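Researcher: Checking consistency across runs. Here is Ammonium transporter again:
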Amino acid sequence: MDTLALSLSKINSGDTAFVLVCAALVMFMTPGLAFFYGGLVRRKNVLGVLMQCFAMMCVISIQWVLFGYSLAFSPGNGFIGGLQWAGLKGVGLIPNPGYAATIPHTAFMIFQAMFAIITPALIIGAFAERMKFSAFLLFSILWATFVYDPVCYWVWGSGGWLKKMGVLDFAGGSVVHINAGIAALVAALFIGKRKGVGVTSPHNLPFSVLGAGMLWFGWFGFNSGSALAANGLAASAFVATNTAGAAAGLTWMILEWALNGKPTLLGICTGAVTGLAAVTPASGFIGPVTSIFVGAAAGIFCYFMISVAKNKLGYDDTLDAFGAHGIGGIWGVLATGLFASMAVNPAGANGLFFGNPGQFRVQLIATLATIAYSFAVTFLIFKLVDITVGVRVKEKEETIGLDLTQHHEQAYTVLE
């Protein structure tokens, strides 16, 4: 049997089918995010949010094929990958055992592409209703290239410095949630508050509930698929994901009920998303009971960040991208360092509460490094974009709404 035939014989059809289905589920999350965010903004900006999410799917898909995947995963220097796989040269049917030994390299690549798409899309929640579409496109390409791809390489790339240090991030706590959450905070601070906006209500709450459901559904592909095989670890991650999301949603609901007198549909949906974000890095390393605690704690931390701290600090993170994903991601990465257990995943490591305090130190280093890098480089990208095309729409355009001024469309022709 020749070398090619031998390599192809190692492909497991079940694993391949599983990962491809999970890639489709993760892709489904970006339209889910569009509905979740779109329902929360004012009616004059809903198409702007949907357009940004859909454009992200197109732009990053091309960036990933041309050079993004290569920068994030090909052999590099510890900080970033090289360009050996640019244009997907050398990325074919043969498995890459450094990443996934039983599926084609192309299957691993396209699964990771969906992560690369949704991560910058999360940032949209911070600058919704006031960013130029041209600025959005330029920012997204630059951020994916100079922030997402390097951090992805640090954590998951075969030569990444954090991976060599032994960081545990099963499905993207630092790569996705901390990274995007900190960028969202920078966006809110850099662009400034919306004009003349006080307390606003979602213009279409059913849209947001639909989006939250789509996100929860897609999250099973996000986390379970990160096992990269149809095996027991994938099932364990599935259970941890669902349990943490449920625990966070219930916790948020109870907090609202106790503190405000009424539980809200938006609250329970937001809570569930925070739990799903928090369990992402830990999902392949913790059991179901631990995931209840991780999710419940995420609900508490994110609730007070969004409902209390944000108002006191005075920044305008429109749809709470930092409060949900940044805070949830930070807690999730640190919680992994506390609760990870080799009884769940022998290929991982034990956390602090299982006798390995060194793992918590590694998780803390990964958290701080991601925060510092994402904050600094995102700020520089915003400065460059502002100098080049200008970040924010004019005040008159903001008043009219981005649907008409940026896209010459409107979602609703009959006003109530």
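Researcher: Does this match what you'd expect to see?
Model: One thing to look at in this run: The chain has a mean pLDDT of 96.
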